[in-house]
């Protein structure tokens, strides 16, 4: 256990330096953000290393790589700094009715189809001077673009977040089958043999056909025949209306497609993995009045949209 003498060596400036180094992984950029010279930041890092008896960061190429000890203590330090900031920051009054500016949200296209329209309509009612900007976002670059200020938050299937980000659960993305019953000539519910034998159209940004669906189907001793792969969900309805084929899509966009294009949806005849959809935002925005209002508005609108479309899922009660 760390003794009192060691604790007294660690002040708020050292913790802040550690936090910025975790984010930047570069001494020059971290020093610039902290308004310090590089010698000053190096001295702070040296004091922290001595106090914790760990290297904390090792040089890899032109950047810094955190040690296992640094990675283990980073979340607690970020929480502590966030708590201090919330305690000393004066309460922000945010009035959406008079505010003028942009709200920016990052989403992949299947979530845009389900939520962007209702969110824009509600924002127009509550904040008529605001503009909603939707940014195409993939989970692999969401964290980087969030740090660059491209959007206020991202809604996607996110990977494990950095210590300076918050990942709030929203809902599990259940999968459904969708097809044109006039083209396919099958009635729901589909049998496992029907599902395996019919032609499939898949969605893949990178053009890859194999997914967790193929793994689940393979466990039954079956495989499917993929006849086409499209890069975006928006191309699916016209493809399905043109050929006797089926697609497996998230329920939220599947129900939108069914309503708009007269397609049939049904549950898959086997258990398929449900990806957790989450909201990713910066920890420093946790107490910001405008950002907090926008996040809560999205959660409210998304929950109503899921319910109105008949989806079997709803927004998690623990969503921020």
TrEMBL record:
Stored InterPro entries: LysR-type_TF, LysR_HTH_N, LysR_subst-bd, WH-like_DNA-bd_sf, WH_DNA-bd_sf
Keyword Transcription regulation among UniProt keywords: yes
CDD domains per the UniProt record, alphabetical: PBP2_DntR_like_2
Domain HTH lysR-type: 10-67
Single GO molecular function: DNA-binding transcription factor activity
Keywords for the protein's UniProt record, in alphabetical order: Activator, DNA-binding, Nodulation, Transcription, Transcription regulation
Domain of life assignment: Bacteria
Record-linked Pfam families: HTH_1, LysR_substrate
Keyword Iron: no
Protein family per UniProt: Belongs to the LysR transcriptional regulatory family.
Name of this chain's protein: DNA-binding transcriptional LysR family regulator
